[in-house]
Amino acid sequence: MDNVERQDHEDQAVSQVVDRLAEKFPDRPRSLIEDVVTEERHLLDGKPIRDYVPVLIEHGAKARLRQSAAGANH
């Protein structure tokens, strides 16, 4: 897989992460979820192994969305 194909694959996987998180957090605006996912993705910029990036992004974004939900309930 060349770099362009790898980037396309990662972009599609990240888009699916946004979709899953939008379903999991229906009370959050999609734009917020997209922003959180983008921030999490940028935290992984420059990392040489990209295979697990979507999983790591989803994990980090989910934790942040849960944390902000818990803060909003207090």
UniProtKB/TrEMBL annotation:
Domain of life according to the entry: Bacteria
NCBIfam families: MSMEG_6209_Nter
Protein name in the entry: DUF3562 domain-containing protein
Organism annotation: Cryobacterium lactosi
Lineage, uppermost ranks: Bacteria, Bacillati, Actinomycetota, Actinomycetes, Micrococcales
